[in-house]
Amino acid sequence: MVTSPALRVNGLRKAYGDVVAVAGLDFEVGSGECFGLLGPNGAGKTTTLEICEGLLAADSGTVEVLGRTWDSAPDELRELLGIQLQETQLSEKLTVDETLTLFQSFYRNARSLSEVIDVVELGEKRSARVGALSGGQKQRLAVACALVGNPQILFLDEPTTGLDPQSRRQMWDLVSQFQADGKTIVLTTHYMEEAERLCDRVAIVDHGRVIAEGTPNALIDAVDLTHLPPPEPRKTHATLEDVFVSLTGRTLRDE
Amino acid sequence: MREPDAVFWTFVFPIILAAGLGLAFRQRGPDRAHVGVIAEHSSPLTESLSGDSSIIVQSLGDSAGALALRTGKVALLVMPTAKPDSVRYVYDPARSDAVTARLLVDRALQAGAGRTNPVRTTDSFVTEAGSRYIDFLVPGLLGMNLMGASIWGLGFAIVTARSKKLLKRLMATPMSRAQYLLSFLISRLVFLVFEVITLLGFGHYVFGVPLRGSLITLALIAIVSAVSFGGLGLLTASRAKTIEAAQGIMNFVMMPMWILSGVFFSAANFPDAIQPVIRLLPLTAVNDALRANMLEGASLAAVSPQLLIIAAWGVLTFFAALKLFRWR
Ligand SMILES: Nc1ncnc2c1ncn2[C@@H]1O[C@H](COP(=O)(O)OP(=O)(O)OP(=O)(O)O)[C@@H](O)[C@H]1O
Ligand SMILES: [Mg+2]
Q1: In-domain check, residue A254
Q2: Which residues line ligand 1 (CB under 6 A)?
Q3: Which residues from A are below 8 Å from B241, CB to CB?
């Protein structure tokens, strides 16, 4: 499946004053792959994604997206990328349709509104104001805004945080569907189950560095269950959570 | 109309302001001087003054007279002195109504004592629309409103979008940034139509404020002004991250113009030394152009210097905003 990489990150560094958010990060994402960045709060996931999305400048290191760099082809890249940010709030006063029409108007070969609305299952809410949507519906709309430009690569920053199990499953279906078209996805998440289900490969990030990388199964298999603190050793099958604990001695969501 | 608050501030507020000020300065009867006389009701002094229709005479005791003068109930006190046929005027020379009262009283007394006027004069009175305070006020309010709506309207929209990371999200799309900022200016034009029509319609039909110039020129002035202030609005909102910070900057930009640019009183009242600066302020140019058009019926050519100043502000502020704009 892995051919020429869709995303290549080398020696990435970024500091905010004294806070080093990203401390020399390397990874590659193959074309058509779904790649997950996992890590606790403040690990540097959002910072890494935003550099890849061309929203932040790195202090050093290189990023190549679809064979291009942000310095050489920024306009071309913006056409090819679909992104969902961790903290964007769309205009509450616009309706779902208006919001999507706005985003659609920015792209040269955008998808049709009704197609995207079907994918995110917001058909009944087309003329509802954004302010009147539930959290899960807002999140799906944000993903719809990412999809409407017909991107080749999709960046999702915690797409399912705060969603109920049903909305989360809808989001998973949506991601799988996008990947089934042969396109690339890079996402961040706190949920092990999500990473295990969706991602072909994951990188575990802590303190701005990749501390482990591989397929979810390979990472899980590498864990020596007997070395886990209790009560984990009684398990017969390790999870990605266990991977993280065994690597750092901390749990993944100890915020 | 999805922002009820905005509707209030842009439409209802200026109308209330115009109505309130219009009533306060409404057409009174001919101005008459209030004068206190320290003498008996039936004294010759009082008699000779009450004969004059432009003077309202009150006969007062010493202390009541002093109080009436201090509190502004009378503009002038007339006191007989010890010598026969002589009076003293007590008044504040800085008050124009006191000076007028002194002249009127003196004229009445001298005429009563037999002075004749060597020159024959006749008066003709002007009460025409166009020279009243409300006529001065409405174009000023319109200018102030065009400025406020652009700066507040765009400022809040942009700073909200920035604080909600919407600008950052838009940055990640192929959207043209200049076009995005331009779209704010164009959005001003839509609202402009309502703002101008409500305020001018109100002034014209309720207070009879004249619209002497060509309406097309008036529309052109309003459009150029709204777009130009839109540029200023973009510039004031180009860096601020929070509404509070933006509000501070907006007030800092607008406050001097509310005072200096002749909204409520003529800018000519300020010292000559700062007149060139005042003339270059955008709101001064807008107010001057609106007044020239509405009150004097000035042609497009006559207001073109002002239009040029307004347009220059628009172009400069727009490009400055585009350069300085913080998208994150
Ligand atoms: N604008 C900023 N200014 C200063 N420090 C920042 C800024 N953004 C992030 N940081 C710091 O950089 C570090 C990495 O933050 P980042 O948002 O990338 O983490 P994250 O992995 O996405 O965390 P989370 O799971 O909470 O979203 C944190 O320590 C954070 O405090
Ligand atoms: Mg994050």
Answers
A1: no
A2: A 16, 19, 21, 39, 41-47, 86
A3: none
Q: Is the Cβ of A36 closer than 8 Å to some Cβ of chain B?
A: no
Task: Note whether A127 and A23 are same-domain residues.
Answer: yes
A158: distance to nearest CA of chain B, Å?
A: 15
Number of H helices, E strands in chain A: 9, 9
Per-residue model confidence as pLDDT tens digits over B73-123: 888 888 888 787 788 898 888 888 888 888 888 888 888 777 777 788 777
A21 and A68 share one domain: yes
Domains of chain B: which residue ranges? 4-24+130-324, 33-112
Distance between CA atoms of residues B12 and B18, nearest Å? 10
Domain check: are A193 and A118 in the same one?
yes
B5, B158, B256, B324 from B9: Cα distances, Å: 6, 18, 20, 28
Cβ contact A85–B328 (<8 Å): no
In a domain, A84, yes or no: yes
Does residue A2 lie in a domain region?
Answer: no
Please return the burial class of B278, using the count of CB atoms within 10 Å of its CB with bins 0-12, 13-18 and 19+: buried
Same structural domain, A201 and A243: no
Quick one: which of A161, A224, A152, A198 has its CA closest to A35?
Answer: A198
Range of the domain at A239: 215-248
- 8 A C-beta contact, residue A240 and residue A253: no
**Whether residue B2 has pLDDT greater than 70:** no
| Chain B nearest C-alpha distance from A189 (Å) | 19
Determine the pLDDT at residue A229.
58
Total structural domains in chain A? 2
Nearest Cα residue to A188 out of A48, A19, A20, A15: A48
Give the strand order in the sheet containing A153-157: A81-84, A153-157, A184-189, A34-38, A201-206, A209-214
Report yes or no on A255 lying in a domain.
no
Assigned token pair, A92: 């509450």
Q: Are residues A230 and A118 in the same domain?
A: no
Asked if A238 and A118 sit in the same domain, the reply is no
Residue spans of alpha helices (H) in chain B = 4-7, 13-24, 44-50, 62-70, 96-112, 133-163, 166-171, 177-207, 215-236, 243-260, 275-280, 282-296, 300-324
pLDDT above 70 coverage of chain A, percent:
89
Nearest to B174 among A83, A87, A106 (CB): A106
**Phi, psi (degrees; rounded to nearest 5) at A14:** -155, 130
> Smallest Cα–Cα separation from A152: which of A66, A52, A27, A30?
A66
pTM: 0.74
Report the DSSP pairing between strands B76-80 and B87-90: antiparallel
In terms of domains, do A133 and A221 share one? no
B232-258: pLDDT as tens digits: 999 999 988 888 898 899 999 999 999
Q: CATH homologous superfamily of domain B33-112?
A: Periplasmic binding protein-like II (3.40.190.10)
Of B161, B168, B174, the CB nearest to A85: B168
One domain, residues A19 and A111: yes
Take atom 22 of ligand 1 and give the residue whose Cα is closest.
A46
Ligand 2 centroid from CA A97, angstroms: 28
Which residues of chain A does B164 touch, with a Cβ-Cβ cutoff of 8 Å? 88-89
